[in-house]
Design brief:
2 helices; mainly alpha; about 5% strand
Length: about 70
Amino acid sequence: MVKALGSQDIDPFTAVESLRAALDQVGIVLPSLGVDAASPALGLVELGRVRADVALRLAHTLRHGGPAV
């Protein structure tokens, strides 16, 4: 279980690297994953655009908690 934190408490660069590592463990790459440079004060993470097959693999992994098929 992840403890909810306010957005000011989380470094977006740390969040990006954590998400990238977790996705890598299940074989999913989001090439455009990064910190949103257009709004640094908001600490937004840009997930980017992905192919439809990658979106389906991500959805499957989130639903089933294991590697994508």
